[in-house]
Amino acid sequence: MLKKGILLKLFVLLGMVQTFAQINGAWKGTLEVSGMKLNIIFNIKDDGGKLSATMDVPEQGASGIPIDKVVFENPKLTLSVAAAGISYEGALEGKEIKGSFKQAGMEFPMTLTKTEITKPGDLSLPSSDAEIKKLIENDKGNYKYTVEDYFKKPKSSSFQLSPNGKYLSYKEKDDKGKNHVYVKETTTGKVTRAIEEKEELIRGYGWINDERLLYVMDKGGDENYHVYAVNLDGSNLKDLTPFDGVKASILNLLKEQKDYIIVSMNKDNKQIQEPYKVNVVTGAMEKLYTNNDPANPIMGYEFDKDGQLKAFAKMKNGVNSELYYKGAADTDFKLAKATKWDETFSIISFNYATPNPDDAYVLTNLDSDKSRIVLYDFKTGKIVKEVYANKDFDASIISLSRKRNWEIDYLGFEGEKVEIVPVSATFKQVYNNLEKQFKGYQFSVIGKTDNEDKLMVMVESDRLYGTYYLYDSKTGKSTLLYDLMPQLKEADMAIMKPITFKSRDGLTIHGYITLPKAALEGKKVPLIVNPHGGPQGIRDSWGFNPETQLFASRGYATLQVNFRISGGYGKAFFRAGFKQIGRKLMDDVEDGVKYVIQQGWADVNNLAIYGGSHGGYATLMGLIKTPELYKCGVDYVGVSNIETFFASFPEYWKPYKELIKEVWYDLDNPEEAKIAKEVSPFYQLHKITKPLFVVQGANDPRVNINESDQIVKALRSKGVDVPYLVKYNEGHGFSHEENTIEFYKAMLGFFKSHLN
């Protein structure tokens, strides 16, 4: 009897194990509510005969939601999340669980199927929802503005005029946070939804012609963009680049051939881009040029207004650039200019105002430190004349009028602010009218009809997020179209002040300080140091910055330094940052901090550092290089190890590998490899003693999730508490509204915990 009883218990136990094995794993179902589809994933785990589970809702950026109750009595499964009033009951039938999902008194049928969930990175590392929520709760206070006020996407945005001016298009957000594209007929007021945003975000859209729109999407931030075309009424939707794992981009809209555009794709070789002419109605495509030398890939193509390929820029041996040009009398492309990769000689536009078909406006710094705009004759290989230059900053802006035989309307550059110089008589009148109407603000023409009778104007400042105006060329008057952020009152916003200081080795460094009111009143306030990404060629700019304004609303000043290697300040300043990442670039940031403290704005005992991408790397290096300077740091999609960063380059970055060695470090050179190791945070973790918050998009193709995983794992092994926020529907930076808002709430809670 005793043996029989033992055997009976054993059989029961084995039966339970077998039963739980049936239910163990990820089960996915689709919930349809009011025409919207949500994927629900229940992750059920058998832990030694005890079941536990979590819930993911990928479209809402939610993952790892703890499930309170998990009961499986074959075939019946019961799951519930008491705090959210959610439950699911179903019965296992073969490979499916058929049942219903309940929430807030509503019930929806939902069938679950076993699925393999392959999420990037180490799934054991990210902080739980409860841990992030606890962090968020630290930022309690009587604040006039919420995080949502700064980071909720505007109700309407991205206004554009159709080429004929008969339609006005815009994005409009629905009550589920989706930003659909609508088209409004200006005479009748009739509104039609042309593009519906579903699970994936519409990354950008625009007019092809008067009948069709185009838009761009990827999958979860992976940057493998597809280009789509659709009629104004939403019909005849076409994926113009229907290839998985291929990165597409728009090269040219052909105004003279209204049903065609030119796109580039890495369809035939993941490392190189080649141009295709695509019919936007039928989807038919034709390759326009084949890159027969992938070892020396073509990096850019220049087409004229008629869609003829006239020039292309080729990378040579990874560090040099060659511009090939095909003249009007030529049968093939010829080498027109050979330069170093860090020198500029690039075509801005061909000059259609002249009978000479070989004239072009070129941006160059070959014979100067600052880039200047010249008129260049490719037939003779000589500069015809200098069009525009500035002694202190790189020239970068030129605008031509297609209607008025391609005459120059205006030129300009970006210094402390964007500066525009009107040229044509027509635009001088426009500029004078706008300057009178918007004195003290920064304004820019962001769109116009083909006959230029209506212009779309954006008006903004450091304290105004942005307003759209419609300018009537006949009357010279502007009509307010839309205020993007009416909830943010200018009078309450902080000022962004341009600053200039000397680096410790004598360079002139520019930047910006955003100051809360307390700092203007003479009080020393906590400072957040915010190094920019890139780092090469990128820069911070003057204007409304929701991030620095949010910090100011909590009493924090924000410092942004355009350290050496930043763009816009000339060739010598750019080159001064080569092989200085983690070294002199950090010195420039520290010199900026010293300058701000000397001005009496910042409390030296309350400094934090935060940045994204290279800025995330700079955060880690700041905590290592000057640990006494900062009380805490936030690393957002930042590089932690130069060796693993290089090893995880996406395919389309690999042709740039030699160039990146010139900017960062050559790991094949023993001396430089040693330096790279010394400035890789991963190898200096013993020096990080201050609190760190790490944030990462799981699908990031540039800074792989392992860059963040390895820093979190290593620091936690030392006993350091590192909050870690990961979103599995994001890439290199967060784009989903709900994820962005959660990130900033958590960051404010983190700062509140560590800054006085």
Automatic annotation (TrEMBL):
Keyword Repressor: no
SUPFAM superfamilies assigned to the protein according to its UniProt record, in alphabetical order: alpha/beta-Hydrolases, DPP6 N-terminal domain-like
Swiss-Prot/TrEMBL keywords: Hydrolase, Signal
Pfam families attached to this UniProt entry: Peptidase_S9 (PF00326)
Stated name of the protein: S9 family peptidase
Keyword set includes Signal: yes
Organism expressing this protein natively: Polluticaenibacter yanchengensis
Secretion signal, residue range per the UniProt entry: 1-21
Peptidase S9 prolyl oligopeptidase catalytic domain mapped to chain residues: 542-756
